[in-house]
């Protein structure tokens, strides 16, 4: 089994979910007392949020590369960026570290294409919904993204940072998110990406008739599938 390097703390709330899912998938594969070989670099998220708000993306990229190199030095064979937004610099991290970065959009696109969908709604941070990196990579897979209107993008973003990233879930926010999903469906979305790793803390498939794609869960599962060598046999 290869060692997975996790770039986390973005926020730590969702990093907990990554660690849990990754270990659950390894146990599901091998059974017994097996767990994942992984390393975690956890940021002080406030420092990263400050850079995001200030538009200091070059500095943020340097921080991400530094984290990746520390994980490489620790023995990581691959990297998982435990957030959607910071995939903005995934290419730079991969190039600078020489380690493969398991891209969250590729993991999502694989699941979406498995259901023969072409038009997908996206809720996430404003950076994820508005910057081209997410849309462009999804387009390479032949998938069109549909995002909320400007006012809703801001409100969706605010709920993430003001509530979910600090471990708070509100019933009103849950109903609001579900109304946004309904609007995306009305625009032609065949399903919706929960494109921030904290959003599954608020809503899940049981809350919605429209298919939801949990970016955290799918990303973690993809990482495990790549960490497990094909020729390995189940060892109980």
TrEMBL record:
SUPFAM superfamilies per UniProt: Aspartate/glutamate racemase
Coiled-coil segments: none
Pfam family name, one: Asp_Glu_race
InterPro entries associated with the record: Asp/Glu/hydantoin_racemase (IPR015942), Asp/Glu_race (IPR001920), Asp/Glu_racemase_AS_2 (IPR033134), Asp_race (IPR004380)
PROSITE patterns found in the cross-reference section: ASP_GLU_RACEMASE_2 (PS00924)
Origin: domain of life: Bacteria
Keyword list, A-Z: Isomerase
Family per similarity comment: Belongs to the aspartate/glutamate racemases family.
The name this protein goes by in its record: Aspartate/glutamate racemase family protein
Origin species: Shouchella hunanensis
């Amino acid at each position: 089994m290869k060692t997975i390097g996790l770039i986390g703390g973005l926020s730590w709330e969702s990093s907990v979910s990554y660690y849990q899912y990754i270990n659950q998938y390894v146990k599901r594969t091998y059974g017994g007392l097996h767990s994942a070989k992984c390393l975690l670099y956890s940021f002080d998220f406030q420092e990263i949020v400050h850079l995001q708000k200030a538009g200091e993306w070059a500095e943020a990229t340097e921080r991400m590369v530094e984290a990746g190199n520390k994980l490489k030095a620790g023995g990581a064979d691959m990297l998982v960026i435990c957030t959607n937004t910071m995939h903005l610099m995934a290419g730079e991290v991969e190039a600078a570290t020489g380690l493969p970065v398991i891209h969250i959009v590729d993991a999502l696109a694989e699941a979406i294409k498995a259901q023969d969908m072409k038009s997908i709604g996206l809720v996430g941070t404003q950076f994820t919904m508005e910057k081209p990196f997410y849309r462009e990579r999804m387009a390479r897979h032949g998938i069109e993204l549909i995002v909320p209107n400007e006012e809703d993008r801001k409100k969706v973003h605010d709920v993430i940072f003001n509530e979910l990233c600090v471990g708070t879930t509100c019933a009103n926010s849950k109903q609001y998110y579900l109304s946004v999903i309904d609007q995306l469906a009305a625009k032609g979305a065949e399903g919706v990406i929960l494109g921030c790793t904290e959003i599954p803390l608020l809503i899940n498939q049981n809350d919605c008739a429209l298919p939801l794609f949990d970016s955290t869960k799918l990303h973690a599962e993809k990482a495990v599938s790549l960490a497990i060598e094909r020729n390995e046999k189940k060892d109980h």
